[in-house]
Automatic annotation (TrEMBL):
Protein name, per record: ATP-dependent DNA helicase RecG
Annotated HTH marR-type domain residues: 512-557
Organism: Actinoplanes campanulatus
MF GO annotations: DNA helicase activity; hydrolase activity
InterPro entries named among the record's database cross-references: HTH_MarR-typ, RecG_C_sf, Schlafen_AlbA_2_dom, Schlafen_AlbA_2_dom_sf, WH-like_DNA-bd_sf, WH_DNA-bd_sf
PANTHER family: GLPR-RELATED TRANSCRIPTIONAL REPRESSOR (PTHR30595), SCHLAFEN ALBA-2 DOMAIN-CONTAINING PROTEIN (PTHR30595:SF6)
Pfam families assigned to the protein according to its UniProt record, in alphabetical order: HATPase_c_4, MarR_2, SLFN_AlbA_2
The Schlafen AlbA-2 domain, residue ranges: 24-135
SUPFAM superfamilies in alphabetical order: Winged helix' DNA-binding domain
Keywords per UniProt: ATP-binding, Helicase, Hydrolase, Nucleotide-binding
First-level EC class: hydrolase
Length: 576
């Protein structure tokens, strides 16, 4: 961090009025703060952060400096070395306002090495996490979750000794075994049902008995909650945006249910209940208006299946239910246990991720049908990407993911990108009918997004890269999108002409496209050659040619000279 960067950070802290989730400020005039290790642990267990020593937060972030910067640097390095795993902080001294300020950047520790803790205290007492501007001790469950990320988990394989094979639904098992024998090769055709179910981890040996595994019970149990009462889903539909706040008629909630049974039945029933509490809204797609659910059904199903499949099934967490909360402005699905392994929130949906703490459960569900005949999950690591595509295709904002170590939450905003105001804006551009994917991308870019071909496909649901390129090129040719770079580095953003449109003449016989407005503004009242217009607007020869012909038909411009003459000039008409 150089002098200018520190000045900017200090200004931001003074405006904010406190340190925050990625910055801890210490006066440190009396020497090394004894609690500094807590901030180092907290930053390492999160997304990293800066330590600033020699600034007094209580006096409005006044720079007071440190007495011996070199000694302070060495002490910070020693504290970092005393952590487990050791923290490789970047430590430096910046001279500011004639005083020395010591700055240390603590990087985040890889997820499979957390919790980063003070070695002499151990992980249970010596681990911290950053919350707002403070450092909080990790709970025992949070420490257990982080430690479990270091090794392969087998909680779903745990035998349930109080259950028997008779506690499994024979119809569900029959459908499962028929599919297995039809798709998994000849090995399962040569063994009996019990042997097949043992091989597939639906059953397990418990001494000399054969009993269901936890995974087998959750998928095929007649009523799994007999043995694990809390392994179900709670669903609450609230009348307002805040839980506990009453609606217009004093109601605390519109719907409140506990959904029990095996996973396939829970998923189907939860989707049905949510649909009964959803509205349908009208969306323009091309030249048509279609009615759609507030939340696409496949998005709800995917998010719900993820929460049931990837949740923590350790003894610590079996008292925690999957929670589904529907508010007027959002849908929340929360499960026990944060992300597993090396996966982080930023990578979700950007690549195929197969890291899971419940591999046997996932493997079973990929061959377990729902009511409509589709399998519960694909087990290909593409579920989040499919969810993003479905939301993009429906013209909705992407979901928000939150990993709080002990819980993982998916929040799906109930907000259509293609709302009435956005549709009016698009209509004002005078464009030919757009397909839904182009409309969604245009709305995203209007809100500040810069898309690549891959980003366009993820955001809109278009799967063919060539189709995405063609649709983006049409937006570029129409003048509403600007293209930067080429080949693999090409990006697309909203055109400046669209964000700051040129005022149209008062007498407007027809709406103008952004390119037509640019051409008309370039012309003003001075006759210009077509080449001059190209230079002034930066538009291509073909774009200017098409724009001039369109403006001529609409009565905005006229041509001076012969139709095909290179010396022909263009000028605004007096009536425009």
């Amino acid at each position: 961090m150089d002098h200018q960067e520190f000045a900017e950070l200090l200004t931001a802290l003074r405006v904010h009025g406190a340190d925050h989730s990625t910055c801890e400020v210490k006066r440190a005039r009396g020497g090394m703060p004894v609690t500094l290790w807590e901030s180092i642990s907290a930053f390492a267990n999160g997304s990293g952060g800066h330590l600033i020593l020699g600034v007094d937060e209580k006096s409005g972030f006044t720079v007071v400096g440190v007495d011996d910067a070199a000694a302070m640097e060495a002490q910070i390095g020693a504290v970092c070395a005393d952590m487990e795993p050791p923290v490789r902080a970047e430590i430096q001294t910046v001279r500011f306002e004639e005083k020395n300020v010591v700055i240390g950047f603590v990087p985040s520790v890889p997820r499979d090495q957390r919790p980063c803790h003070k070695r002499v205290l151990g992980p249970w007492a010596g681990s911290r996490i950053r919350v707002a501007d403070g450092d909080r001790k990790l709970t025992d469950y949070e420490v257990a979750i982080l430690l479990s990320n270091r090794t392969e988990q087998h909680h779903d394989l745990t035998p349930v000794p109080t259950a028997t094979v008779d506690d499994l639904d024979p119809q569900l098992l029959g459908a499962f075994l028929r599919r297995i024998r039809a798709t998994k090769g000849p090995v399962f055709g040569r063994v009996d049902d019990e042997r097949a179910l043992l091989m597939l981890n639906v059953l397990a040996k418990d001494g000399d008995r054969v009993v269901p595994t936890l995974a087998g019970l959750l998928v095929f149990g007649i009523y799994p909650q007999t043995f694990e009462p809390q392994l179900d889903v709670t669903l609450v539909v609230y009348p307002t945006g805040e839980p506990g706040a009453s609606g217009r008629f004093g109601e605390r909630f519109i719907d409140n249910r506990s959904l029990d049974g095996p996973i396939p039945e829970i998923v189907a029933e939860c989707v049905d209940v949510l649909k009964r509490n959803m509205r349908r809204r009208s969306i323009i797609s091309g030249i048509y208006r279609v009615d759609e659910w507030e939340y696409p059904e496949e998005v709800i199903r995917e998010a719900l299946v993820n929460s049931l499949v990837h949740r923590d099934y350790s003894a610590f967490a079996r008292g925690m239910q999957v929670q589904v909360e529907m508010y007027p402005d959002r849908l929340l699905i929360r499960n026990a246990g944060g992300l597993f392994g090396t996966v982080d929130v930023g990578s979700l949906g950007t690549r195929a991720v197969t890291s899971s703490r419940n591999r046997a459960l996932l493997k079973i569900l990929e061959d377990t049908p729902l009511r409509d005949g589709r399998m519960v999950c694909e087990n290909r690591g593409t579920g989040i990407a499919q969810m993003l595509m479905a939301l993009g295709a429906a013209g909705m904002e992407p979901p928000r993911f939150t990993d709080d170590i002990s819980t993982f939450t998916v929040e799906i905003p109930n907000h259509a990108l293609l709302d009435e105001e956005t549709l009016r804006w698009m209509t004002s551009l005078g464009l030919p009918p757009l397909v839904r994917s182009q409309m969604t991308a245009l709305a995203l870019m209007r809100n500040g997004a810069v898309l690549t071909n891959s980003g366009y496909r993820t955001s809109t649901g278009v799967q063919d890269s060539r189709a995405a390129t063609r649709e983006l090129k049409e937006l570029v040719d129409a003048g509403v999108v600007e293209q930067d770079g080429n080949r693999g580095s090409t990006t697309y953003r909203i055109s400046r002409a669209v964000l700051a449109p040129i005022d149209e003449p008062v007498a407007t016989p027809a709406r103008l496209t952004p390119n037509e407005r640019q051409i008309l503004a370039a012309l003003s009242t001075v006759p210009l050659l077509r080449a001059d217009i190209e230079d002034r607007t930066g538009l291509s020869r073909d774009t200017v040619k098409r724009g001039l012909q369109s403006l001529r038909q609409k009565g905005f411009v006229s041509m001076i000279g012969q139709q095909r003459s290179r010396g022909a000039r263009w000028v605004q008409t007096l009536g425009s």
